[in-house]
Amino acid sequence: MNLQKIIETEYESCTKKTEENISIENVTVPLLLKEYASYLRTCKANGPSTDLNGHERDYGLALFIVREINYSHEDITKFCLSFVNEIEETQKMGLFLSALVNTNYQKNKRNNTEKIEYKLITEHISNSKNISCIGAYTDGAKITIIGDIGDSLCMRMREGDILVQGNVKEHIGYQMRGGTIHITGNANLVGTAMIGGEIIVDGKIHSLAKGYRKMSGGTIYEKDRRVYP
Known about the structure:
Elements: H1 3-14, H2 28-46, H3 52-66, H4 73-81, H5 90-110, E1 117-121, E2 139-146, E3 159-165, E4 180-183, E5 198-201, E6 219-222, E7 225-228
Parallel strand pairs: 1-2, 2-3, 3-4, 4-5, 5-6
Antiparallel strand pairs: 6-7
């Protein structure tokens, strides 16, 4: 993925002659792309984030960046569609998407319009199976993800409804406390350090979390059959 090329193309398409009646919404996605590029540069300067503390740091940075941007739930979908081929920083992409959704949801909640459904599309991205941490820290949003995704889906989720129309790599519901995850495809290492909530897998569960990362609460179903507890 050439992020700079995407940004240049989006700006070119959104800054044509004024007589074409370009509205303010048309420049929102390019703005999000610019801020995402800035986010990646700052994360790189901060050093690697290979543990939970690093994830929290990168997520907090994403929240700080997106909170001042005026964007809609449709803009988040368009932001996803702006990426083609491969994504280089798959973990940071997931955290940035999570920050976009969670920030927008909280704003809508304050305006009593929180019942909006968020749609994240990854099926067109060749390495979508590596995009991790989507749905991190979800606290009430309803999200549909179209396509395969990577690990740590809904990490530390408290509340919400997540539907994945595809397969999920591993560590589903890492430390989740509430909410529902519904996966139409297959999943591996389901319920990692899960505390509460519900995970439903229509396809095959290759394995449940074990050892020190095993579940301490919640409920897990595979093909309508309860497999935990």
